[in-house]
Specification:
Blueprint (H helix, E strand, L loop, with lengths): L1 H4 L8 H32 L5 H24 L3 H9 L3 H28 L1 H9 L6 H15 L2 H16 L4 H24 L3 H33 L17 H26 L6 H5 L6 H29 L10
Length: 329
């Protein structure tokens, strides 16, 4: 095995080695800053009893779908991003990034609306048993709602950071992570003391910092695209497509309309699923009904609510699509 896995570094590979280090070192710094941000939140949360546990449960509820959606959206597109960056196809690379960002918004926003509407039922279904009582659910659910506000921003940040890595400019996300860590600590100190629930203030600071990080990184990414396109030595075949943009304005209008329809649907569905604040399954099943089967029915009810909310969002989003203009021959 040593013959196959023995490291070999030749002088002619030095350039590729340096290029790899230029990407790995900023990536390691950026990942370290994310971990330090979590430790910063826990350090502030330790000042209040139960705040750290509340944040941990809410984070577990949000991190699972965010991690799954992030891998589904980003991983299949990473080779395309790297290939377009290597071939210096900047307009195509920008369109690919914008398409991934729009996908993140279209997938993350209905999840945010649904989690905000059904946070109590989701927390009750996932966590409430044994020592985790109804009082614990009432503490975790508001924190999970605030965490849900950051789902689209968490997904979009992963896309923008991967775009910088594909372009070989890992220093920008690393520098942004350092600034975000400092800003997160300042907001933690301010919001945790102003909010009635300190855990909500700590989570809200994380969401705000993620939002600002995405906006700053995307602005820097667009600036780099324009710079590379302007100073590109060879003319690009799709150079004229740059000025047309990626349709952000009509996309955002359709997103707002679809979000409004989804919010109204969630509000109406909430009156059916949780009448008088109690689960519909709990009201319909007799007292001797097995608790395990009741939990399965509750879980199925939550899943059906999430799936139907997504369906309503995408139907509303499709219905608001502008009709293509046809030109007379």
């Amino acid at each position: 095995l040593s013959e196959f896995f023995r490291p070999r570094l030749r002088l002619r590979d030095w350039t590729q080695f340096v290029d790899t280090v230029k990407i790995l070192v900023p990536t390691a710094i950026s990942s370290t800053m994310l971990q330090l941000a979590s430790y910063t939140d826990l350090w502030f949360a330790s000042a209040w009893p139960g705040a750290a546990a509340t944040m941990a449960c809410a984070a577990l509820l949000i991190s699972a779908p965010v991690g799954l959606l992030s891998n589904v959206i980003i991983v299949p597109r990473m080779p395309l991003l790297a290939q377009q960056a290597a071939d210096q196809q900047w307009p195509s690379l920008k369109r690919t990034c914008d398409g991934m960002l729009q996908t993140c918004v279209s997938v993350g926003l209905p999840l945010t609306l649904t989690l905000i509407a059904f946070a109590s039922l989701a927390v009750e279904t996932v966590f409430q048993r044994s020592a985790f009582t109804a009082e614990s659910t009432s503490l975790v659910a508001p924190v999970a709602m605030v965490y849900a506000l950051g789902i689209p921003w968490f997904l979009c940040r992963d896309v923008v950071v991967r775009a910088f890595y594909a372009m070989g400019r890992g220093r920008v996300p690393a520098a942004t992570s350092v600034v975000a860590l400092t800003l997160n600590a300042l907001l933690n100190a301010a919001l945790s003391r102003r909010m009635p629930v300190p855990a909500i203030g700590l989570v809200l600071s994380t969401v705000l910092v993620s939002c600002m990080s995405v906006l700053v990184l995307y602005a820097a990414l667009c600036r780099d695209f324009r710079y590379f396109q302007y100073f590109q030595t060879t003319a690009s075949a799709d150079e004229g497509a740059w000025e047309g943009g990626s349709g952000w304005r009509p996309f955002l209008v359709r997103t707002l309309l679809a979000s409004g329809a989804t919010a109204l649907y969630c509000k109406a569905l909430l009156q059916v699923v949780l009448p008088s604040g109690h689960s519909l399954i709990l009201r319909l099943t007799p007292p001797f009904f097995p608790a395990s089967l009741r939990w399965l029915l509750d879980a199925g009810l939550v899943g059906a609510a999430f799936a139907s909310s997504w369906l309503v969002y995408f139907l509303a989003f499709s219905c608001t699509k502008p009709k293509a203009q046809t030109t007379a021959p």
